[in-house]
Amino acid sequence: MENIAILTGGDSAEYNISLLSAKTVLKHLNRRKYVGIIVHLKNGKYTINDQTLDTSDFSYIKNKKKVKFDKIFIALHGSPAEDGLIQDYFDKLNLPYTSCNAKISSLTFDKFACNKTLHNLGFRCAKSILINNEKDLLKYDISNYIGFPCFIKPNGCGSSYGISKVTQKKNLSKAVNKAFLHDTKVIIESFLNGIEVSCGVYFNENKVKTLPLTEIKSENDFFDYQAKYEGKSKEITPARISKELTLEIQKIAEDVYKKINLTGLCRIDFIIQKNKPYILEINTIPGLSEESIIPKQLKVANISLSEIFDLCLNNIN
Questions:
Q1: Which of 112, 134, 139, 278 could form a cystine bridge with 124, CB 3.0-4.6 A?
Q2: pTM of the model
Q3: Contacts of 309 (CB under 8 A, 6+ apart)
Q4: CA dihedral (116, 176, 100, 94) positive or negative
């Protein structure tokens, strides 16, 4: 039996989603092979219930004996996991973990840098600019370069926190200030008008594999937090698009996984505009709550959560 630390919590706005993901992992972990223990991280402090872990070797005391972990299942969204801040710590302890390494996580979490990298690799992405403060808006002709409507997003934040859709120049400043509440850098991105789909992608038997696509139809103006987690959207799996387009998007997801050097279970989101798929973002630690997209895709693919979690842990031997 291997001891698995299911890491949850964190310091971002995605804290509560992380707690839900960790519960799902614990519930479906193969109990014949693993002992799953939820480890909570907050403000740099790792705890199991009320006991603080020894960070010198990531251990804790149970029945007066020191207990160490064999592997880490990272179910922590946002910082400090999706941005790569904690992976170096686990690397130093030689503790294998289920997510991408620090370098790749840092890249994919930085929306602007990731878009630039994807564009340079030949993938389609929205046009975007990066600003460090509100005054930077004066440097750009948003109307001509990006156009309206456009999206204002925190550069490194998930679950659609701090995102605004802006249709007029006069509303830019308010949206930018809202995004700055969640990050020190803000991305302004061109609006892609089309069908939004999401593709789960993972590694198995020396091959990159994809899951059925999910079509996302938001009741709101875009796929915001309410749409994602409060039932304000329809998530249809498999997506109602042609077989040819489905296969094209799955192939793009495979290529991204390989060329960006992703590992573990990831999710890549797309917008299909005029029958052409554009990459929206890469999620290296996708949500695993009951309302999340990946569990729904796995169900359609007839893959159990226990099976995929087993795979994630086996792939990091």
A1: 278
A2: 0.89
A3: 25, 28, 29, 30, 73
A4: positive
